[in-house]
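hey
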């Protein structure tokens, strides 16, 4: 399990760096964040079917928050994130393949728009 956690941390670090090209990224959201912003949520790790190979599925939720009155900004940020995701596969030491993603939209209140991208990654340790 130690290797999985280490690999998970490496993927998180790379994902964080790439997301900074999209906008403000917070590891811990401050009291008065600068909108719009992104947050990488807690990953979910599932062991692969063939344990000897060391394959794992990791789901990284990426949260996007916007105060733009319409939906344009949050939709645009979702598209920006989706466009940079293939760059993760290009990092040879990560050994990951993006399997897919789900996108959910929800309004926190009348002021804040919230999108969640659940990024599913297959890692090869």
């Amino acid at each position: 399990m130690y290797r999985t956690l280490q690999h998970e941390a490496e993927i998180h670090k790379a994902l964080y760096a790439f997301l900074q090209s999209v906008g403000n990224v917070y590891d811990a959201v401050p009291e008065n964040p600068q909108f719009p912003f992104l947050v990488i949520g807690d990953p979910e790790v599932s062991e692969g079917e063939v344990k000897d190979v060391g394959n794992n599925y990791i789901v990284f939720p990426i949260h996007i928050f916007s105060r733009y009155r319409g939906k344009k900004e949050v939709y645009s940020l979702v598209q920006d994130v989706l466009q940079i995701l293939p760059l993760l596969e290009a990092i040879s030491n990560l050994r990951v393949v993006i399997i897919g993603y789900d996108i959910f939209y929800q309004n926190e209140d009348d002021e804040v728009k919230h999108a969640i991208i659940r990024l599913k990654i297959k890692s090869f340790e």
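Residues 2-124 form a domain with the Alpha-Beta Plaits fold (CATH 3.30.70). The two ends are 11 Å apart (CA to CA).
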